[in-house]
Design a protein that fits this description.
about 230 residues; alpha+beta; 4-stranded antiparallel β-sheet; about 25% helix
């Protein structure tokens, strides 16, 4: 059975699923104090000067990716909603044949919003019809490890430093050869919170083999169960 934490016993969701404004509430006094001192309420957006508003909110993903050299990022096709969904010829010319699966995500996102892994051209067309905004299609990077790298450089300094690394543990279960994916998910609180969402996306009635690792979610966002 899934065990409830202190917050859940009080009727509150886990803090990872709180709205952003609630998560940053503890730093509001500091924001207010610096705003008064600097006479500027948006003083914190001076970080990341090449990104709109410092990446605070509503920034364009494609504008950020355009800053990065091509050899350091996945192939990315930007799609304007009014231009219609890309054709199979466009996708093959850009990504090559047999490029699926591909990942689609809105240009302006946040917390895994509207991110979808597509397996077919029909998936792309359906995504285009439902997303109702500009988006990008990207090649999926298959790698055993994903890290978030926090690099900082003072503008007046020639070099900066990596000040933290955060690894991502994607949501998964390990089979025992006897129980279903759903049963195994119920044994882990983080996975249990995702059961209802994933029920319509994967077959959670399957019984994995002993020691078989079953990846439940390919999208690395904490709202989707990823552990940082």
């Amino acid at each position: 059975m899934k065990r409830k934490g202190i917050l859940q016993k009080l009727g509150l969701p886990h803090h990872e699923y709180w709205p952003w404004w609630m998560l940053v509430a503890p730093v509001w006094p500091m924001w207010l104090w610096y705003g008064i001192r600097l006479r500027c309420s948006t003083w914190f957006t001076t970080i990341n000067p090449a990104i709109e508003d410092g990446g605070f909110m509503g920034e364009s993903k494609i504008e950020i990716l355009n800053i990065i050299p091509d050899d350091l990022k996945p192939k990315t096709l930007f799609v304007l909603q009014e231009k219609g969904a890309p054709s199979v010829e466009t996708l093959e010319n850009f990504f090559g044949k047999n490029a699926f699966p591909l990942i689609a995500k809105p240009d302006i996102g946040g917390r895994g919003r509207k991110i979808k892994i597509t397996q077919t051209l029909q998936d792309i067309k359906t995504y285009h019809e439902t997303v109702a905004e500009n988006y990008m299609i990207q090649a999926i990077v298959q790698a055993p490890l994903e890290l978030g790298v926090f690099y900082a450089r003072i503008p007046s300094h020639e070099k900066g430093a990596v000040i933290s690394l955060s690894s991502k543990g994607f949501l998964h279960v390990i089979g025992d050869g006897k129980n279903t994916i759903e049963f195994l998910m119920k044994k882990d609180k983080r996975a249990a919170d995702q059961i209802e969402r994933l029920r319509s996306e994967i077959d959670i009635t399957q019984i994995p083999n002993t020691n078989e690792k079953v990846l439940l979610e390919h999208i690395g966002n904490h709202c989707k169960g990823t552990k940082f």
